[in-house]
Amino acid sequence: FKSFRHFSGTEENKARLIDHSEVINHTTIVDLALTRVLNNRWSLLVDVPIINNGRSSLYEHGLVNGSYVKKERHSTHSFGIGDVRLAAYRWMLDPLKNKKGNIQLGMGIKLATGDYNYKDYWYNVGPGGTKELRTVDQSIQWGDGGTGITVELNSFSNFKSNFGVEGNFYYLSNAREQQGYRTSR
Fold first, then answer.
1. Dihedral sign, CA of 69, 179, 27, 11?
2. What is the DSSP letter of 123?
3. Which of 4, 43, 41 is nearest to 23 (CA)?
């Protein structure tokens, strides 16, 4: 994924693209999921995301005499295992009798396994303009530091042998409002 557009509410700040001051985030996630089917209705899931993030900007780097100047684009990165999720699923209708459509409910727990205080070297922000090891922006952290409950609804309907629809609805409830670490902002 690539994120580079800036908004204030619903209004896009296009000037950031014109003057090349936009922050650019790149995110690549490989999701390793292991599903164990217990019987024709129940299954268990272990989901382990491996995350590679990069964030480049002008204004977060380039500190000169105590002031940030838009001079050079520099990046911070993070790579590792994100928050692991464990879940159980149940088909609500008998799959042997309902091959053209069904509904599956799932419930799980998201564990706080991803580092939410990952650090990388920031360019020209330390004393005398040196690199400094600091917490990366929250947008490229691997996790949020909290354990959460997940609820899912999966469904499908096959209208014909070659035409159908499917849907996935997912909700995460996490009691933690803040991650607990300050970033550069």
1. negative
2. T
3. 4
